[in-house]
UniProtKB/TrEMBL annotation:
One GO BP: CAAX-box protein maturation
Keyword Translocase on entry: no
Pfam families listed in its UniProt record: Rce1-like
UniProt name for this protein: CPBP family intramembrane metalloprotease
Transmembrane residue ranges: 7-33, 60-78, 98-125, 196-213, 220-238
InterPro entries: Rce1/LyrA-like_dom
Keywords annotated in UniProt: Hydrolase, Membrane, Metalloprotease, Protease, Transmembrane, Transmembrane helix
Domain annotation CAAX prenyl protease 2/Lysostaphin resistance protein A-like: ranges: 145-231
GO MF annotation terms: endopeptidase activity; metallopeptidase activity
């Protein structure tokens, strides 16, 4: 029991590290932008473009920096964890060319299922639609530009898979059976989305992503499927 409690606590540490980086950036990035602006002014330049860019994109600048910075300690930690199973050899990180197509396609299927789920939720709780639309607008996904696309399609799948399926799941598997470890990491993943609407389908998606990583023996399986979920979500939103 003590070992399971220790594994549970340790599995939360990657998420707490990720959140700590976010807190530091939220507190300090504005000061850094001001410092850079003062430097540009000192050199005779006009910092207004820098200030405007910051004012228009604070959340995505923080998220992009947060995920980029987290990749370093999380990647080093992941490499030191003992492997629970031998990854398949050949292809892209052990994946055959067929799976390079099937995994993003599975992400599209998950996105379509989440769309059906959202229709059911909004039919029962129509007031939730307003809040969900507000969340998407704040994320910039109603009219995505370069930074939202960079974060949503590239960085988020890599960083989130590394944290939840790479670190938390593998740490939990050291002391828990896979089914229990998978439920716990999916619960973490759903909770981190911060609201009930996204949290439920993120939990279910997290279960599927954890299974794929376990089944294929490589974190690349989760990254590619997650990439398919986010890319198809952006494309469907535009359509």
């Amino acid at each position: 029991m003590k070992r399971q409690t220790g594994a549970f606590a340790l599995s939360l540490l990657p998420i707490l590290m990720w959140m700590a980086i976010q807190v530091v950036l939220v507190w300090g990035l504005g000061y850094m932008i001001t410092w850079l602006g003062n430097g540009i002014s000192f050199l005779g330049g006009n910092p207004q473009d820098l200030y405007t860019f910051w004012e228009e994109n604070p959340s995505y600048l923080i998220n992009i920096l947060m995920d980029s910075l987290m990749l370093i300690p999380a990647g080093l930690w992941y490499r030191r964890l003992p492997a629970r199973e031998k990854a398949r050899q050949g292809g892209f990180f052990g994946l055959s060319p067929l799976w390079l197509f099937l995994l993003p396609a599975a992400g599209l299927a998950l996105q379509l299922l989440s769309g059906l789920y959202l229709r059911l939720v909004f039919a029962v709780f129509p007031e939730w639609l307003r809040y969900y639309t507000y969340v998407l607008e704040n994320l910039g996904m109603t009219e995505p530009t370069f930074l939202p696309l960079l974060y949503t399609i590239v960085l988020a799948p890599v960083t989130e898979e590394l944290i939840f399926r790479g670190l938390s799941l593998k740490i939990l598997e050291m002391e828990f059976p896979f089914w229990a470890a998978n439920i716990l990491q999916a619960f973490y993943f759903g909770t981190m989305h911060g609201n009930m609407v996204q949290g439920i389908y993120a939990f279910l998606s997290g279960m599927v992503l954890g299974y794929l990583v376990k089944r294929k023996g490589t974190l690349a399986a989760g990254i590619l499927c997650h990439f398919g979920v986010n890319l198809s979500g952006v494309l469907l939103g535009l359509l």
